[in-house]
Design a protein that fits this description.
The protein is mostly beta strands and 430 residues long. 8% of the residues lie in helices and 59% in strands. A 14-stranded antiparallel beta barrel has the order 2-3-4-5-6-7-8-11-12-15-16-17-18-19. Strand 17 and strand 18 form a beta hairpin.
């Protein structure tokens, strides 16, 4: 009974997701605390339940029931400098991020798992209204059930389904051309939600005590969004139904873990992300879902002396594929304590010179430091009775981005960014 209560508490921890406050930059964050301390070089390491994200084949080697909850606190400040006017604007907001995993070794060669995590974020809020983006909030949440099989003593494969939920708010200024009345500026705001379905697969191969190889493939996901559009500051213009499709990129990652001497492990990963599959943001009117009189749009268009197609708005992101390199090392002080460090270079997914305020993604250099603890957790009713195994991981990351200038006419803005992340993970092994 006591063990069942502990398991139930762990499941409740996994089911509780952390609420975002804010963030900035369309980017990928590390999901697990242990992996983050190694700068994300975890595709071949995967020795805790966050393997569900990094490489689902890894849970085949995790004994018993494993629960891991991760939380991070982040402060990211992005600045935009306009050379012509000399104006400087800032988007700097704090946020909290969570990721939760549960794995179960059902039989000797079969394991099941489920994860809830949020790998992609695009959130900015500039202090000035502008045609490209005044405020963006785009969050993507994955629910991933996985199954892993141990084919041989040192070889496993894993598969998972991705149930994806996304939410989007996009506000920017829009200039109306009202015929004889001249131009008129209004705030255009989209608010939508959507979902999609994808899959993932991975393998892990352990060769003796020195080498481990691992890989993961994550298929692209088309998220179908629907919601409402509103022009603020426009007299009597109705709320309209809009639809959109935003594609999340496919990913391919390979990793190597090498143990040159006892207590020291070296990790290397590279990850290819096909951001070119994300063509842009496009939002279209869906008059069939509107309850209002559709004649309104035609009458309003005649009054403005133009065709009313303002709901069909588009921002071309011009994204490109990226190759991320990640290095990590772990030194074990003893059976319980480990020190970790890592370095990662993540190039911008935006074509050189095409950075938008909606997507100020810059080249990033990431330095990570952290430590971990694994040890017994005794029963609160009987101090001599082992209740479970406890693991705790802590990390700090500093992300420095090189200043980059966009060459978009009229928006030749120089962007700069600093990012500090502190996080931890708490795990239970039963």
């Amino acid at each position: 009974m006591k063990k069942n209560i502990s398991v139930l508490v762990a499941i409740l921890l996994i089911a509780t997701s952390t609420q975002h406050l804010t963030a900035s930059g369309f980017t990928t964050f590390e999901i697990g605390a242990r992996a983050a301390a190694l700068a994300g070089a975890f595709a071949a390491y995967v020795d805790d339940a966050s393997a569900i994200y990094y490489n689902p084949a890894g849970i085949a080697f995790l004994k018993g029931i494993r629960a891991k909850t991760n939380i991070s606190f982040s402060n990211k400040t992005t600045t935009a400098s306009f050379p012509v006017s000399g104006d400087n604007y800032e988007s700097g907001l704090l946020f909290i991020k969570g990721a939760h995993f549960l794995s179960w070794n059902l039989f000797d060669r079969l394991s099941l798992g489920i994860g809830l995590f949020n790998p992609y974020i695009a959130q900015t809020k500039w202090i000035v209204e502008n045609p490209y983006s005044y405020e963006t909030k785009y969050n993507v949440y994955y629910i991933r059930p996985v199954v892993a099989f141990k084919l041989l003593n040192g070889l496993s494969i894993g598969f998972g389904l991705d149930f994806v939920i996304s939410t989007l708010i996009w506000t920017h200024t829009y200039e109306w051309y009202q015929g004889i009345y001249g131009p008129y500026t209004a705030n255009s705001r989209y608010d939508g939600k959507g979902n999609g379905l994808g899959f993932t697969a991975g393998f892990l191969w352990k060769i003796g005590n020195k080498f481990q190889f691992g890989g993961r493939y994550q298929h692209k996901v088309d998220t179908n969004l629907s919601g409402k559009h509103l022009y603020q500051k426009v007299y009597k213009y109705p709320v309209s139904s809009v639809t959109s499709i935003i594609t999340l990129p496919s990913e391919l990652a390979f990793g190597l873990k090498y143990v040159p001497i006892d207590k020291l492990a070296l990790c290397f990963d590279f990850q290819w992300s096909r951001w070119s599959e994300t063509k842009g943001w496009e939002f279209q009117f869906d008059r069939a879902k509107d309850n209002r009189d559709s004649d309104f749009y035609d009458n309003w268009g005649n009054f403005l002396n133009n065709t009313i197609e303002h709901g069909n708005q588009y921002a071309k992101l011009r994204l490109r594929d990226t190759l991320n390199l990640k290095f990590g090392l772990e030194y074990r002080l003893n059976d319980k304590f480990a020190l970790r460090a890592g370095y990662s270079h993540q190039p911008s997914a935006v074509d050189e010179g095409a950075i938008l305020l909606i997507d100020p993604d810059l080249d990033r250099n990431i330095i990570s430091l952290g430590f971990g603890y694994e040890g017994p957790l005794f029963s609160i009713w009987d101090q001599k009775k082992l209740g479970s195994m406890l693991s705790f991981d802590f990390y700090i990351q500093y992300v420095r981005s090189k200043a980059q200038t966009s060459s978009i006419p009229g928006f030749d803005i120089t962007y700069d960014c600093d990012h500090l992340i502190i996080g931890g993970g708490l795990g239970f092994n039963f």
